[in-house]
Amino acid sequence: MVIDRIPPHQRLILLAALVVLLAPGTAHAQTTSAPTHAATNPETTAKERGTKEVPAKEKEVGPKPMSKFGESLSTAEARALLGEMQQLTEQALTASRAAEQATSVADVKAAAGRVLQVVWGSAAARGAGDGAAEIDVPGWKERWQVTGGEWSPAFARRNGTSAPRFTDPRQLGAMGRGRAVRGRLMALTTGNLANPTAQKSPTEQAVASLSNVIGWTYITDGLKGNENQPRISLTYVWDAPPAFWQSSSDTGWLDEVFAQAANILKTDYGTDVAEARRHAAGMSGLLQKVLNGEDADKNGTIEPKMMEGGLNSALRAAGQAGL
Length: 323
Known about the structure:
The protein is mainly α. Helix content is 48%, strand content 6%. The chain has helices at 8-22, 26-32, 46-49, 75-99, 105-120, 140-144, 153-159, 173-186, 202-214, 242-246, 253-266, 273-292, 311-320, and strands at 124-126, 134-136, 218-224, 227-233.
């Protein structure tokens, strides 16, 4: 009798609320059945994974990577890889600038495909000509150089502990080379990276500049329920200025380049070569930033520090550090 006196539009709202109240606890069911879920994608946010955010008192004082990639490189090997990163990026920039003058969409897409290869090595674009293409990228084990056995046994049982298909940095393009070199450099730092305002040694300046290029992220661990799982983390630079979190240096300028190249390949331009050329010009600008960095604080100088230094700065600082 009471519900009949409620206007029709309010009656629907009331019924919807009752349905929500009476519905079973699906979130709890998903949590309890976790062992049968598909592999967790580590490149997600804490909110998406249902992982608790790190309390301020528990913030990391420095990176705690689960991967040992690059730590055993010799000085000569690390120096060579860093130099190759610079050369590859310069080659990509040359291809991108040529695409700005291309006479066909197919030529612009071909240049974008070469840029993809520079960034991730084994990454490949399928499809050719003027139409849209599909993009292949290395798997997460290859990108982060882990086996899956670094985390809880339950996680390892679900996802396996097979080694990455390839471990040579040169098979992982500029990004793989950069992550390997950073692994070597991080073993030589004092931990000042966790404090953006601290005076930096040449090694730390090299790491900062290189991290702007490849991203400050690294793979570590985090709890989901009682299970230790992969987590892509940035919490060791938690106290970085707000501008850092609003910039693209947190996840890396090379990632921007990859996204621009992938978008060019995926876009169906039809016969609009002018639009494709404009996108190539955008790709060129991003590649220039990878090489030269940018003057984020507008003081007239590009310094080897967070948000500013690029590959050229990383090479200079590495040389000062004896690399």
